[in-house]
Amino acid sequence: MKINHSLKDFIFILGPLFIMNSAYAHSNGESSGWMHPLSGMDHLLAMVSVGAWSSQIGGKAIWIVPAAFVCFMFTGGLLGFEHIEIPGTEVGVSLSVVLLGLAISVKKILRIYLAATVTALFGIFHGYAHGYEMPLMQNKLTYTAGFLATTAMLHAVGAIGAHYLLKTANGDKLLRLLGLVSTLCGLYLVATVT
């Protein structure tokens, strides 16, 4: 099977991200804010999926959908810093992986603001997990800037990767297959937290 150049680039970008530690980010309280989104399969898959789904939707969604996630992630982070209880956070984080992967795999094209609302809800859960687990010695400002910047970078990786993948002959099918793989990973994550 011949793999074209843009697909190789896509695999090169995403490969190292998926090889990283598959344990939950929530078990490692020592990582700095920028590392937290990279240290768990749940956060990693959800954030790359937000970018990929926004690219699949197209148009203004490419920036509105990820921006909604990041803004509400900030809100969730503030709630987490204060240890204000949000029930079902772990389940919400894991379900975000399932539902985003499912949206990609079935090519669910929602209206931009509905898609943004969905991702904003997921952003609250992810932000809460980051904020709640901030190491005591960390500066809240730099920790928050770190996890928001990494999240935006992961969104960009997903969006750019999906954009180039969709330009290839079988890119749509491959992107949908990757969405299905993400959904299955999410179902595993849900099973581990329920």
Quick recap:
With 194 residues, the chain is mainly alpha-helical. It has helices at residues 5-19, 41-57, 61-81, 89-105, 112-132, 140-166, 171-193.
Describe the structure.
The protein has 194 residues and is mainly α. The protein has helices at 5-19, 41-57, 61-81, 89-105, 112-132, 140-166, 171-193. Helix 4 (89-105) runs antiparallel to helix 5. Mean pLDDT is 85; it is low at 16-30.
Name its key features.
single chain, 194 residues, mainly alpha
Spans of at least 5 consecutive residues whose pLDDT stays below 50 are 16-30
Tell me the span between the first and last alpha carbons: 41 Å
Protein structure class: mainly alpha
Strand content: under 5%
Mean pLDDT across the residues is 85
Question: What general outline do the C-alpha atoms trace?
Answer: globular
Share in helix = over 70%
Sheet having the most strands: none
Supply the number of helical segments: 7
Count every beta strand, where a strand is a DSSP E run of 2 or more residues: 0
How many structural domains?
A: 1
Radius of gyration: 16 Å
Order of helices and strands: HHHHHHH
Please outline the helices and strands.
Blueprint: H1 5-19, H2 41-57, H3 61-81, H4 89-105, H5 112-132, H6 140-166, H7 171-193
Helix pairs in contact: 1-6, 2-3, 2-4, 2-5, 2-6, 2-7, 3-5, 3-6, 4-5, 4-7, 6-7
